[in-house]
Amino acid sequence: DGGITQSPKYLFRKEGQNVTLSCEQNLNHDAMYWYRQDPGQGLRLIYYSQIVNDFQKGDIAEGYSVSREKKESFPLTVTSAQKNPTAFYLCASSIVGANTGELFFGEGSRLTVL
Amino acid sequence: QQQVKQSPQSLIVQKGGISIINCAYENTAFDYFPWYQQFPGKGPALLIAIRPDVSEKKEGRFTISFNKSAKQFSLHIMDSQPGDSATYFCAASMGHYGQNFVFGPGTRLSVLP
């Protein structure tokens, strides 16, 4: 089955530690995205990538970093510079130039900073 | 101007009733308006979407009503079922590119049996 796989589903981190969230897709989509979801707020874009080896900052990129070395993979690193990292993180993908604009989401990773 | 407002924040409906969620936007450049459904612990999934050249779109029990002049759009769920209990997000986009999506804050719907 095609889809997006995020891991781990739950992650606990001590303050000052960097953590990396994995996102893999087998939909053959060119574009991939990372969103952050907080209670009572809409999804906010952290980073996106439309092509391998290229990515752009979204609205809340500070304290995060990404890489896109392979089309199917788009890992997100939450650095110690992120002041409030506890949140639900969603990875998504889409077809570039598609008429529908549909975003396909993974099941998310919940990060808790202790 | 990039904000999408959504109301209510939460909604409780009896089984068989109609659920209505409203959204409003300011940016007239938006040309794609999707609704996403999210179950607890899962990622959102596209439910239904509309373009501003039509005033209504229906898919099964789900209908989007779109009022271009008022810059408002709404989701109606007819004959609401307990299985519809989820969080619903409206969104707006320019050119339906993923990076341009602006999401509303979400509405948590509970349908009582």
For this entry, give a set of tags.
heterodimer; A: 114 residues; mainly beta; 48% strand; B: 113 residues; six-stranded mixed β-sheet; 0% helix; globular
Can you tell me about this structure?
The complex is a heterodimer of chains A (114) and B (113). Chain A is mainly beta and 114 residues long. In chain A, 0% of the residues lie in helices and 48% in strands. Chain A contains no helices and eleven strands. The termini of chain A are far apart. The mean pLDDT of chain A is 92. Chain B is mainly β. The relative contact order of chain B is 0.34. Chain B has strands at residues 4-7, 10-14, 19-25, 33-38, 45-50, 56-59, 62-67, 72-77, 86-92, 102-103, 107-112. In chain B, the strands form two sheets. In chain B, strands 2, 4, 5, 9, 10 and 11 form a six-stranded mixed beta sheet that branches. A five-stranded antiparallel beta sheet of chain B has the order 1-3-8-7-6, with no helix packed on it. Chain B is built from no helices and eleven strands. In chain B, 0% of the residues lie in helices and 52% in strands. Chain A binds chain B through residues 4, 31, 33, 40-45, 48, 50, 56, 58, 90, 92, 94, 96, 98-103, 105-108, and chain B through 4, 6, 9, 32, 34, 36, 41-46, 49, 89, 91, 93, 95-99, 101-106.
